[in-house]
Write a structure and sequence with these properties.
With 224 residues, the chain is an alpha/beta fold. Helices cover 31% and strands 29% of the residues. The mean pLDDT is 96.
């Protein structure tokens, strides 16, 4: 499938799939969306509520690695150990990663080096990126995830339900529920009613929250 690099409204880049008319991140701002949905509404919420010494994160749709990059800097800033797992069936190419150039819009002099390191780590092996952040990338389909009660937080960043409704089904969210520890949290940019109901049917307690730029709402689900 053809993929194009485009600029979003906040100056950061994303990948666009013309065949599906779908973006990897919001066209209203890739970095803004990631910060709002996954960092502030997900990670910061979990840390403030539980004050853990370590956090285990699963990302559904590792994609460009933007969410992992922003999470790395949160771990460094807060001095908290984060163990990060990213699942991706179709990894982004080296040429595309270079063109994305997230270091140009992230105000940290280490951004380029860290982004490169995230993508140079081998798949299927856990690698220490820093004393506060380690990463394991897994090349597989979401349906192949078999972990049980292993994660504290899930970044659910799959392609939208309009183009891949099967990724937002009750069966998928049941699997997500099972991978989380008690009081674990799942956050996603989608706020569709069908998605919310699928989450609730599996046992999640679901909140509708203000969305990132360009979206009125998003969802946060907690395992009871």
């Amino acid at each position: 499938m053809k993929r194009e690099i485009i600029k979003t409204a906040d100056g950061s880049a994303t990948i666009y799939l013309p065949e599906w008319n779908e973006h990897y991140h919001s066209k209203h701002g890739a970095v803004q969306e990631a910060l709002h949905v996954f960092i502030r509404t997900g990670l910061e919420h979990y840390l403030e509520k539980h004050s853990p010494e370590t956090v285990s994160i699963l990302e559904i749709g590792f994609g460009t690695g933007l969410n992992a990059l922003l999470t790395f800097f949160e771990a460094e800033k807060r001095k908290i150990k984060i163990s990060y797992t990213g699942v991706e069936a179709y990894p982004v190419s080296a040429v595309e990663l270079e063109a994305l150039d997230y270091a140009a819009v992230i105000p940290d002099e280490e951004a380029a080096a860290v982004f490169k390191k995230l993508h140079e780590t081998s798949w299927e092996n856990r690698s220490e990126i820093s004393p506060f952040f380690d990463l394991q990338k897994e090349k597989k389909f979401f349906s192949e995830i078999t972990a049980t009660s292993e994660y504290d937080l899930i970044y659910f960043d799959a392609f939208g339900p309009r183009v891949q409704p099967e990724l937002w089904s009750e069966a998928v969210f049941k699997n997500m529920y099972n991978t989380l520890r008690s009081q674990g949290v799942l956050v996603t940019y989608s706020a569709k009613g069908d998605v919310r109901r699928a989450m609730q049917a599996t046992g999640f307690e679901v909140e509708r929250l203000p969305g990132p730029p360009g979206k009125r709402e998003m969802l946060r689900a907690t395992k009871a």
